[in-house]
Amino acid sequence: MSSIRRVGLVAKHNLEAAAGVLAELTGWLEARGIEPVFETHTGTLVRLPPERPTRSREELPLACDLVVVLGGDGTLIGMAGRIAEAGATVPILGVNFGSLGFLTEITLPELYDSLDSVLKGTSEIEERMMLRARTMRSGAVFTERLVVNDVVITKAALSRIIDLSVSVGDQHVMQVRADGLIVATPTGSSAYNLAAGGPIVHPALDALLLTPIAPHMLTNRPVILTASSQLRVTPLMHGTTEEVYVTFDGQSGHPLQPKDVVEIRRADLPLRLVRASQRTYFDVLRQKLKWGER
Fold first, then answer.
1. Would you call 268 a catalytic residue per the annotation?
2. Exposed, middle or buried, 132 (CB in 10 Å: 0-12/13-18/19+)?
3. Is the pLDDT of residue 5 over 90?
């Protein structure tokens, strides 16, 4: 018997194309005795009656046994962070409304077969490593975030090259002169890391990727570290005119000040992702990267 009794429904903001799917999905779930739990903004897409309770994206992870995300990878990444922040282990089923995503790899025609597999307990649920990043300022935690893809430290658009000191524990690794530095998970290896010339790493591996962005020294190459590594990245800011920023999964971030330290380590809990049964990771890579096409 399935242990799933409540399914959270989250759609990309203002994705009107999802309204019909959400209405149909609600009927499909209720016919099987499963309660749909709408995220607040998603509920407005299907014009839920005012008395129908909804949950914020922060509340949803503790109110359901499975989350269905309708949208793209960005929507899924945002929800994954909220699940991790809640300390929950709720799996996510990502349905793509555009081209196939690296994370939202289930297409609309595959939605109900995939859901049925989850309810029967026959679906593959893959665990993806996440990162916990925090900015230390004056010896205290200034910000703390959980990320799926990457932590990026970069210069402002009109700034000159920046200097970054990178350490693992108490061991100095390298000093980077570049436009910035990407610290990525294997899942994030096919995102900004790939565009910056970093390697593609299979998401089943436990590893951290360090990829300089447009390094001044050609000998500053990408480095792959063990997932147990405790990273410390310190911007070496030589003047008050330098602008250095840290961003988390490209969804939030803030400017860094002199003597700030960004600490990055493996998160305690992984992202649990429902996989499409008929599509492998390499199938997704070939389709997204157009390998073999002329």
1. no
2. middle
3. yes
Catalytic option among 65, 73, 249, 260 = 73
C-alpha distance from residue 177 to each of 164, 166, 230, 250 (Å): 7, 11, 21, 22
What is the model's pLDDT at position 2?
64
- The domain of 26 spans 6-128+270-289
Q: Is 12 domain-assigned?
A: yes
Distance between CA atoms of residues 205 and 101, nearest Å: 20
Give me the helices (H) in the chain, please.
Answer: 19-30, 40-45, 73-85, 111-120, 192-195, 281-289
pLDDT digits (tens, 9 = 90+) for 200-229: 999 999 999 999 999 988 788 999 999 999
For 87-93, what is the mean pLDDT? 96
Measure the CA–CA gap between 248 and 227, rounded to whole angstroms: 18
- With respect to residue 294, please indicate whether it lies within any of the assigned structural domains: no
Average pLDDT of the chain? 92
| 135 and 235 within one domain | yes
Task: Detail the DSSP E strand segments found in 39-170.
Answer: 66-71, 92-96, 125-128, 131-137, 140-147, 150-155, 162-168
